[in-house]
Amino acid sequence: MISSFYKEMTGKESVIRQFFDYSRARAAELGPDSVYNFSIGNPSVPAPQAFTDAVIRLMQEKDPVTLHGYSPTLGQPSTKKAIADSLNRRFGMNYGPEHIFPTSGAAGAIAHALRCVAGEGDSVITFAPYFPEYIPYVTGTGASLKVVPADTDSFQINFDAFLDMLAPDVAAVLINTPNNPSGIVYTEATIRRLAEILTEKEKEYGHEIFLITDEPYRELVFSGVEHPFVSAYYDNSICCYSFSKSISIPGERIGYVAVNPKAKDAEYIVPMCGQISRFTGHNCPSSLMQLAVEPVLDETSDISIYETNAELLYKELTRMGYSIVKPMGTFYMFPKSPDPDANRFCWSAAKELGLINVPGDSFDCPGHFRISYCVPTERIEKALPLFEKALSL
Q1: What's the pTM value of the predicted model, to 2 decimals?
Q2: Residues 157-200: pLDDT tens digits?
Q3: What does the alpha-carbon distance between residue 180 and residue 132 come to, in Å, rounded to a whole number?
Q4: Which helix (DSSP H) or strand (DSSP E) does residue 196 occupy?
């Protein structure tokens, strides 16, 4: 008998993927200029040449048996050390290789981190709007996900609602900054206040509350915006990172868990990740990809286009009458929907105009919609008249 749990999940396909698949089908039927696809966060700029050069050099110079052999369970030692050194150099931390666990992107990192600190009977808190895949990540641990409603005026943390939701069963808090879908970066004041509350509640409840940070957009911050490194503000923290966005390699599935050396039982968490992999079949990302990111840990792709696109969209959409909290990073924007029913607005725009966005209901924030603007700027320029027409649908 097949699993009823996973069978039921087959009817709950990602809305993001539904819109993405619709746009591909329309483009195939009517041509690429019939659709403007802002549905999915797939980087639109190439990886740094240094990454490509590293892959070629490894393929040419490294013994193929070694290069394509199994990675150690807890990751390539040289990669772990290089990541720790980079984080220490950039953020004033004190990581060692023993605090780093390479994973299949940020998704693998979050799934491992949650299993380390949460289980049956526990709760994990996150903040709307949030990436919808948090639901299966948390459910897979046996814990339940609690969602703090969004502060739609700023998309910073709604602390009053957060305090109301905190309880002794909370094992972890999961945050995403810079944020998908809002494009907002949590300020230092927000991070400090969050750390203060968690520290107070740890004392009150008599147990640790881990802060898990989802950081694939860490490097995608716009000019003049400060982005605090969250783990520097709270000891019981686990950073989950991906190279997918920063160096434009989402298909290579490479990221890591970085356990704060000051965290309670920090010495156990990476070895626990190795054991969790036995249950999930993770078994480390490829040896090649681990080694290939080492030379580019402090680099990014040319991500300036994302800021260019953000400025253009924000200026023109607000001129048209859209209400938007100005993004501070990522390649997402989260306007209010002209129709209070964002699902109706997005599907209407998609069907009538070929303008593909994702309704905010998917991110637990109804009445908004997400624009993923990691596309060539000329595509945005061509789509602007359609956004204006969509206001009257």
Answers
A1: 0.95
A2: 999 999 999 999 999 999 999 999 999 999 999 999 999 999 99
A3: 10
A4: helix 188-205
